[in-house]
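Explain this protein:
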Amino acid sequence: MKTLDGKVALVTGGSRSIGAAIAERLASEGASVAITYASSAPAAEGVVGRIAGSGGRAIAIRADSADAGAVQGAVRETVERLGGLDILVNNAGVAELAPIDEFSDAQFARSMAINVHAVFYACREAAKHMGRGGRIIQIGSVNSDSMPFPGGAVYAMTKGAVASFTRGLARDLGPRGITVNTVQPGPIDTDMNPADGPFAETLKKLLALGHYGRAEDVAGLVAFLAGPEGAYITGAGLKIDGGFDA
């Protein structure tokens, strides 16, 4: 049997990059997977199609993570259409970068809505449906502990909030047999931060391994936490950063 046979997972922001890799990896381990997307239906359907083509089961739900109602609705729709919820991966995020005296109200509101508020609303709704053995996995950032360049203060703040929330939530849900952890990636080769992008050479110099990670690397860690071997890990912030913060 596969490690996640019979499980149902929801991955927010699952239409591309790290989210897509997570969704496909969880499906490969046997989970039925729902993904949310904000605008790119073709990309989301591409993920669903690849999972179905490999014999898995997946659905795509349009839900902008900046909209609290849509986030909660996506959790409920996952339960209704797939028969439950065992694994929640809060992956959707945004990186707004600017000096603090130039950071607009709109940028701040969007950063908080997607990176912090959506995590709270998804977790609160998921907790109503999860039983023992449930898993909540937040995709945070190594920047919650280390921000090596200017302009990232608000981003670091939002990811720090997620890390703190995770620790508290692990205490709340531990008696119910539900684990809560944060995965904290460093530089990962994605369309938002490509390995050949404008920041790449600067960031590579900060990495003990000297190169960017892959979305599949993050997905592997998420799959471990979601599976039976991750059952005794909770309240943790697990870095997958190539030695960025070593």
